[in-house]
Every structure is written in C-alpha cells, then in structure tokens.
Design a protein that fits this description.
Elements lengths: L20 E7 L2 H15 L5 E7 L5 H9 L6 E2 L9 H19 L3 E5 L3 H12 L4 E4 L14 H11 L2 E4 L2 H9 L7 E3 L3 H11 L15 E6 L8 H16 L3 E6 L4 H11 L5 E4 L4 H10 L2 E4 L3 H8 L4 E3 L8 H5 L2 E3 L4 H13 L1 H8 L10 H18 L1
Parallel strand pairs: 1-2, 1-4, 2-3, 4-5, 5-6, 6-7, 8-9, 8-11, 9-10, 11-12, 12-13
Helix pairs in contact: 1-2, 1-7, 1-15, 3-4, 4-5, 8-9, 8-13, 13-14
C-alpha cells in the first residue's frame, strides 16, 4: 500500500480516529446500482477494514430492486422516495432531507456516491453540509456543456467539487479532475466498475429464457433510447431511421426495450408498432439485457453505461446523442456519435452491416474502460483513507 495521503482540511475537526472505516454507499437508480454493486461486494469481503452500510433512495423503485436481487444486496436503509411523475425539484429536496436524517443517525466516516444522478448530487450536498467526506465513483466525466446531458453534467461538476476522494475510470476523466485543481494525491485511476458488473453477470448461470424469440440466422441490432434530449422530434427521427434499417436489411432483427416514460413509450409505439422483425418489449432486467448485448451484432443507444459495456464485448456502439461525457471510446473508434439525424443513423448502420472491414475495425478497437478490477482498486484506496484517518 502506498504512503498515507494527507486529508488536512477535508475532515471535520471533531473527527476521531477509527479502527474500521464506516462506509455508507448511497445510490437510487438502476444504473447506479449496477455500477456500485461490485463496490458493495468488495467492501463486504473486507470486514476487518470496513463497517459497510448501503442506503438506497429508490429514485427508481422497480428497476432498482431488480439489480439488488441480482447482486444479492439488502439495503440497510431504504428511503423509498419514488413518486409518480416526480420532477427534479421534488427528487432533489426529498433526497437532501432524507439523507440529512440518515447521515445524522449513522455518522459514516465516508459516503460513496456514483456518477451523475440527482441522488448523487443531493447526497453529496448533504454529506458536505455535515462535514462528511465524499468518495465519487466514476468521477471526472465531462462534456463541458452544462445542458447536455441535462441535468447530469452539472450533477457531476457539483459532486466533483464537493468530493474528497475521486475514483476516475479513465485517464481522460482523471485529467479533467486535475484541470479543476483536484488534489492529485486523492485522484485514483480505477477503471469503470460497470465492467466488473458486466463480467460478473455474464459469468452467472442463467436458466430463464429471453423474453423474445430471436432467429439465430439473423443479425441482432439492439436499441435503447430514453434520454430527455431525445424527447419529441429527435425521437421521431430516430424511430424513422430504425424503421428503414429493418426494411432495408431483411437479415436484421431488432430489439428495443421501451422505456415506460410516456414521452418515449407513446412515440416509439406510434412510429414502430407492428413492424415485422422489430420487437418492442418491456424494459429488461440487467442479466437478460447483458445476454442480449453479448448476442448483438450492433448496438444503438443514448445510454451512458452501454457506451462502456459494448466495447468490452467487442460490439460497435452508435450513440444516439450529439455529445458524450465518455469520449474515450469515440477516440479509440469503438463508439461513434450519430445523434438523432435520420439519414446519419441509417448510413452509419448500413455501413457497418455491409462493410465487413469497417465492422471489424470498430468491433476490435481498444477498450478504454478497464479490466473488471475497478472495485478492488477503489477498496484499496479506501484502505489508504482509513490509514490516514487513524494517523490524523
């Protein structure tokens, strides 16, 4: 283990030395749960070092619970905050007030949050108000456009300005943190924990059939689209492109798990309902979705995590966004931004389906997101933090 890092000026003055670091991991949505599950598991495997607890806000209830079951995580605290049609004001204030009570009651030595959600933003602020150090998993991602993605870009920026420990998934994200004057001694290059979760999930035996019968003689194009930026005309344009892809490539079968948000559900079913070889299905749990990714020839998505998972499976990913806070795979060539323009999407998909060299080049480009050992590196950094607390 490296020498203890100085944490002067980030600890409350009455903070006492600890024998076991009291770590509270907080998340509220399915993507957070997937990416934090390996960290929760790794902390549980080091009981001599950590008194580990899990708090969920349930910003997303049903989809969150699916992941908790998959990874056998039982939360110590469940705020159960999800309400129908909740807006950002309601989520933010509910999490902030709920976490005030949780943090005051349990008084952790460090709070771990993930990524860019409203749960992450509000939990970080609550911990800061109570002078509790924050560790930010997947720190340093940036588009440098505060409204794209919205509100995630600002959530990340604020959380990184509040955090004391930074777990950067890539060298580029680490460099972004150093540009904002984060202490280099507290920035840890870890890889992305989603790769840990992906490899763990695919290694588990599965007996449940996929919810859709696929023809093994056809190539699978897997699609997800749900982001606010694509509501309305952009989503309509994306759907028109998907329709043409299926119609122009008779050897293609397409699967689109439809997000329940009415802004997505109504448009997708109106534009694509009843189309042969295009399966509109309910949102999938993480395990069957990983299996579909592994079977896919090509993935189209506006999701963040899939931009990291696809390259790890050697699947070309076309991103249905105009900007991404994950530019590393774009630079390396395994991910390409296509936005929501109908013609651009159609041309890029058709090129990959008809040009074997273009497909192979993209599928086998280097994966920048790590080796599936990120959680272990995060836990080692927390051990270092524990040593620093004991010597403070």
């Amino acid at each position: 283990m490296s020498n203890p890092v100085s944490f002067q000026n980030i600890l409350a003055p009455d903070r006492l030395p600890v024998s076991r670091l009291k770590v509270l991991t907080v998340f509220g949505t399915r993507p957070e749960a997937i990416k934090m599950a390996p960290v929760v598991q790794a902390l549980a495997q080091a009981p001599d070092w950590f008194d580990a607890m899990v708090c969920v806000t349930a910003q997303h209830r049903q989809m969150l619970d699916q992941v908790l079951r998959l990874f056998n995580i039982t939360p110590d605290v469940d705020l159960d905050l999800m309400q129908p049609n909740q807006d950002l004001f309601q989520i933010t204030t509910a999490v902030l007030n709920g976490m005030k009570q949780v943090l005051s009651t349990h008084q952790p030595d460090v709070v771990l949050v993930h990524g860019d959600t409203t749960t992450t933003l509000a939990t970080s602020l609550a911990a800061f108000y109570l002078r509790i150090p924050v560790g930010h998993v997947e720190a340093g991602l940036r588009t440098y456009n505060r409204f794209n993605p919205f509100p995630e870009e600002i959530n990340r920026v604020v959380t990184d300005n509040v955090a004391s420990l930074f777990f950067a998934p890539t060298p580029e994200s680490r460099d972004n943190l150093l540009k904002m004057a984060a202490d280099p001694a507290r920035v840890y290059l870890t890889g992305n924990t989603v790769i840990d979760a992906l490899f763990y999930t695919l290694a588990q035996p599965s007996t449940a059939p996929l919810p859709v019968a696929l023809n093994p003689e056809r190539r699978l194009v897997l699609v997800t689209v749900h982001r606010r930026e694509n509501f309305g005309r952009p989503l309509e344009s994306i759907c028109r492109a998907l329709r043409q892809i299926v119609q122009q490539h008779p050897d293609v079968e397409m699967v689109l798990p439809v997000h329940p948000n009415p802004n997505v559900f109504k448009t997708v079913h109106a534009e694509l309902g009843g189309l042969e070889r295009l399966h509109l299905i309910e949102p999938l749990e993480y395990e069957p979705f990983c299996r579909l990714m592994a079977q896919a020839t090509l993935i189209l998505t506006d999701s963040g995590g899939i931009q990291e998972e696809g390259p790890s499976l050697e699947k070309p990913v076309l991103v249905l966004r105009h900007e991404t806070e994950r530019p590393e795979a774009v630079t390396m060539g395994t991910v390409r931004l296509v936005g929501s323009n109908e013609q651009t999407i159609l041309e890029e998909v058709s090129r990959l389906l008809t040009d074997a060299n273009a497909y192979t080049t993209m599928a086998h480009a280097a994966n920048p997101y790590g080796d599936g050992q990120a959680a272990g590196r995060i836990v080692n950094a927390l051990k270092q933090f524990s040593v620093a607390l004991q010597s403070a």
